[in-house]
Amino acid sequence: MQHYSPAVERVLDHMSEVRGGKLDLSWMNSNPGGWGVRATPRDERGLGLEDLNQVGIYGEVPDHGGEHGSMAPRGAEVPADTPALGCYDINDKSLVWADNVALLYDEAVARQWSSARDVPWDKLKPLPDDLEKAMCQLCTGLTEVEFIAGDMPAKWMWHINHDFHEVKCFLATQIADEARHLEVFRKRALANGGGLLKASPGSEQLLRAIIEAPDYTTASSLMHILAEGFVLTLFRNGEMLALSEVEKKIFRLCMQDEARHVAYGTMHLKYFLEKHPERAEDIHEILRHGEEAIFGLSMEPQTSEPRAILAGGGVDHIFEGMAKLGYLYTKQVREYLHRLKVAGLDRSSRLAIPLELPS
Ligand SMILES: [Fe+2]
Ligand SMILES: [Fe+2]
Question: How many Å apart are CA 184 and CA 142, to the nearest integer?
């Protein structure tokens, strides 16, 4: 006869009791306060995560996450003997929350796209060497930086208390978005007779600051508001750099995703500063560091020159392109300052970099 461990034997004993008619069924009477709800879609977009927060106890997001420290779903009855997982140390809502986060998750899920299917790759045509090289260098740089916005949420996600599942779900969509951004720019570099060109030591400085930021909100301010904010303004003006329908479509699709990431970061910082106004100086300090890093990066030849060639329309028009990039830079800085203002942080008088590039 087969011998099993005591734990398996206990289950087998229990199963024979059940076969003998000894049922428990106590779970049927658990959580009476959470029973009898009927979540309904608010509109034609269907039943969203946000809609679940409109019903009964399920929309009550605690200021401090469940002390039980388990993955028990928010709103369920948690038995006293539920073991804590011991991994959640971001337990305060204010450290991760944004009031728009569930809606942003719903939008992210609805607007997923495929770089294989949704980009008209057949519209690529052979290009003069200077333009193809400039596009490939731009794509090399974007491929290098895009996944920081996957790595940063991945670093923090498993620390976040399970009661804030909306935030974790949203960050999961961001990781998927960034994977797609990484691969779509890599695809563009490899799809038209070119290839990857030169990596960027300057980028690595900024990426290191994001990954080494001491806590989630400083990391988020650096990444969601500063770095992704600059990228969002760049993609919004993608027509300036695009050479064909292919790049236009890529920039447009990535822009939708970045807009969500920046919207989350802005509203998270707002929520955080409302609860912790005394932390404003920490945010100023990390942003000062980030501004200097992004400025250094944007002046690096492998970053600035290909963009100027694309904006000007060829290496012979690189100075016209630089003038256009100067205009774009000012727009990036102004939009960044505006987002911070929305979040409740006025950096206009403390900006560590020029508002306009010297002409
Ligand atoms: Fe991205
Ligand atoms: Fe992003």
Answer: 10
Residues near 49 by beta carbon (within 8 Å), at least 6 away in sequence: 102, 105, 106, 166, 169
Residue 8 lies in a domain: no
Residue 250 lies in a domain: yes
Task: Looking at the CA of 145, name the nearest ligand.
Answer: 1
The total domain count for the chain is: 1
- Domain range spanning residue 201? 93-343
Residue 86 in domain: no
CA dist 301 → 188, 198, 199, 210, 359 (Å): 21, 10, 11, 22, 17
H-state helical runs in the chain: 6-19, 49-52, 101-110, 129-146, 148-157, 165-190, 201-212, 216-220, 228-236, 245-275, 280-298, 301-312, 318-343
Distance 57 CA to ligand 1 centre (A): 35
pLDDT digits (tens, 9 = 90+) for 296-319: 887 799 999 999 999 999 999 999
Residue 236 has a CB neighbour count (10 Å cut-off) of 18
CA of 247 to the centre of ligand 1 (A): 15
Q: What is the pLDDT of residues 24-33, one digit of tens each?
A: 999 999 999 9
What CATH number did the domain enclosing 102 receive?
Answer: 1.10.620.20
